[in-house]
Amino acid sequence: MLMNIKRRISFVMVVLTVSAAMLESTAWPQPNAQTQSLEKPARIPDSISTDIGLDQLKAKRASVEGAAGPDTDNKKNILNLLDKAIQLREHSDRIIRQKDEISQTIKDARLYQQHQQLVSRGAQVEPADKQRV
Fold first, then answer.
1. I want to staple 123 with a disulfide (CB 3.0 to 4.6 A). Which of 7, 22, 64, 118 is the partner?
2. Is 84 inside any structural domain?
3. Is residue 7 one of the residues assigned to a domain?
């Protein structure tokens, strides 16, 4: 009986190994030279890499909204994409402003820390707000 169980386990292991090998070779297509060249362009076109401002996006949305066209489904899709782009641009601008505020806070904290170190050493230092530039 033990021998029968070992045979069954061995059979199941062989079937699973062969199945896994077949699944791996068919489910995950191997990249070839042609698909790799399509995935990695040599250079990003300037029209894509330039930063589009919020005003440009809003102007583009207004021009698409005012355009007369027979295909309203495409127009709705374009307007939805432009609305998302506007939201992302606004969010990006907010993040940049927050980053600048945090950087300024860190600079101020470092200056304050340096000032406190000088004062603790007994140096005569004017407060930062009274110093002349």
1. 118
2. yes
3. no
